[in-house]
């Protein structure tokens, strides 16, 4: 890899890590944010919706900005906005200000959706798919970092929000390193990269594409709910605040390890099969832990579920772009929009359910969604083929 390409790859992976850490800020410290704002959980959880709104509203905008002003400037803007989000939430303790900061953080994540694939396509021209999987793993590592830092701070009798200040170092490093990377868009090179994708043929295009969109929406709701409520659920069953953060860490460790493992597994197994069997395995792990109903079982159950769920967003994107292989950018944007819309709606739905029935309903809600996803995955699998008919 050329020296300049190393800088480009570093910045892309750093941004994946940063957005992974930022998107879980609300979920990893939800019980503590409730106390900090002195508001009900179903209101505080809407910070997650504000974050998702910021992301969805900028998916197409940042794509256009990449073409007009270049990916490095968009990357700098995204990193700076996430830094403002991490600094503003604990510094200005006002619920409505928090909503604004969460929105800005989502806008920053919207930059990752459009910039990072472009950067990795330049840095890894011969192994783009592997680089995307590695980016998913770094995103999972970011998911791990935030609840881990929250747990460390609470274990050391420090305020939970000190973890946010630690994470601000990442956007600062990104902004410092950006001037060392040179990047000029090459539309012809990007077109050639798109032509390398292996098509996935469908028996009924509308049915197959509808199925992958349902999978995306339900999967995003599953992940959003787990990240939002694992810590709160742990406290509700008597786990200490510090250890409850580590239960969410266990889930994210599973996601990270699974993302790495499936880089190799996906070379041998079809993406459609992974979407089906991984959801079945995750559902089995969650049902079993609820039946056992012991704290060690909850730690193991969420870790196993994370192992099978963590890689699936990149698999969903891969399937969608293979189905619509002549319009890869359109397919990617559609998946990002569907997932983001699910992220907006989910906190409102789960907040209402948890407010009425208690935080334990969150896992049952997740299991129902996974069964819906399994049904859609069966439809997808039976309506796609590797060979043109």
Write up what this structure looks like.
By secondary structure, the chain is mostly helical. It is built from 19 helices and 2 strands. It has helices at residues 3-22, 25-28, 30-37, 41-44, 46-56, 59-69, 71-91, 95-123, 128-155, 162-167, 169-177, 187-195, 205-236, 241-265, 271-292, 295-309, 312-323, 328-357, 361-382; strands at 201-202, 384-385. The chain has a two-stranded antiparallel sheet. Helix 1 (3-22) packs parallel to helix 7 (71-91) and helix 13 runs antiparallel to helix 19.
Number of continuous helical runs: 19
CA(first)-CA(last) distance: 40 Å
| Element pattern in H and E | HHHHHHHHHHHHEHHHHHHHE
Helicity, in percent? over 70%
Strands, count = 2
**Overall morphology:** globular
Structure classification: mainly alpha
What's the Cα radius of gyration?
A: 20 Å
Q: Beta-sheet strand percentage? A: under 5%
Strand order of the largest sheet: 1-2
Q: Report the uncertain regions.
A: 187-195
Averaged pLDDT: 83
Biggest sheet: strands, sense, closure?
2 strands, antiparallel
